[in-house]
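Exercise 7.
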Amino acid sequence: MEPLSAALVLAADDPEALATFYAALVEASPAPGFSAAHWRVSLPGMGWLELYHPSRERPLPPGRGRLAVCLKRQGDGAALELWMEQALALGAQRLEAPRQEAFGCEVWLLDPEGNGLLLLVSGS
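Solution. The predicted structure, written as tokens, is:
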């Protein structure tokens, strides 16, 4: 049996720009995909984030639905604050104030195209 790989697929109005945004947050480099309408970002320990521009025949409106990208790293509230400031400087919008939960510190954002993004830091 061949190895299995996993990816998150996210529609984007500007796949290259959104790939650059996410690549900066995970300290990776965006990579061209299968066409000019497709870009990829390697998610450390998780597989890939695949960003593509939907076809005109099957448009997908941006928005915050039930699916969101969650990026997690080790750290504390101060680390989350720095990461959030980085995301905001790259074009994200904050939905609410960072908060401490039993599993770590989190903040909900919208990425530059309005998709849900959760930044999470924890001690493990």
